[in-house]
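Data deposition worksheet. Section B asks for the primary sequence of the deposited chain exactly as it was used as input, without tags or linkers unless they were present during the calculation. Section C holds the resulting structure in token form. Section D is free text for depositor observations; keep each observation to a single sentence. Incomplete worksheets are returned to the depositor.
Section A, Depositor: J.P.
Section B:
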Amino acid sequence: MIVRADGTTSGSFAGPKTDGLVTKEALQAIRDGRFYLTHIHLDADQGEAVGSCGATLEVFFEVLRPEPRLIIAGAGYVAQALARLAAALDFRIVVVDDRRDLADPIAFDDKVQLTFGDIPQTIHELEPDESSWIVIVTRGHHLDKDALKAALDTNAVYIGMIGSPSKVKRIFKDLLKEGVSRERLEQVHAPIGLDLGAETPDEIALSIAAEMVMIRKKASGASLKTVHHLLEEEVPVES
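Section C:
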């Protein structure tokens, strides 16, 4: 049985009541993004079980999602480093730039799709959806702003933009004046990445990739040491 995120279904287990229970569980599985096994009771009084004693179904829920697509706006050193990392994270990668001399195919894995053209326009043409992630690492303030504005017109699940706090503030201020809502801008991950003290392109790419994994896995990003407090569990503090 297939249950879609909007609640529509294809296929059936037994009848309306049982299918309703399965659909309810499936929608929760979609929201949680997890796989699990549960039991669904079939009520004989509803005519949805064989015989008069009812039955119990063991139902496995598996969430199927489109292959995530990472659109990287810009093809510089950070983009190249991020593409190398993201390739191992099960992303289908598209790199967009308007400079063929910079976007050298040799600098990218052969699985990376290089797309040349006006960056904001190309972002629109790629039609990012709920399975798309957009990372903006272009060469300048104005291009970052235009790329961000284009990204905000899409349904991408993640939009991140590189830049110092002062640069991000200026871009946000400009976009607010141009009619972009504050609520929409609050969804942008900028400055992009986790606070790793990153300086080099590889370190910056790592901080971006770490943030993306954190969001995809719905994790906190906190140090595992501070999450578990293992020493405190083993050695209670004496009063």
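Section D:
Strands lie at 2-3, 9-10, 36-42, 55-61, 69-73, 92-97, 113-116, 132-136, 158-161.
The mean pLDDT is 88.
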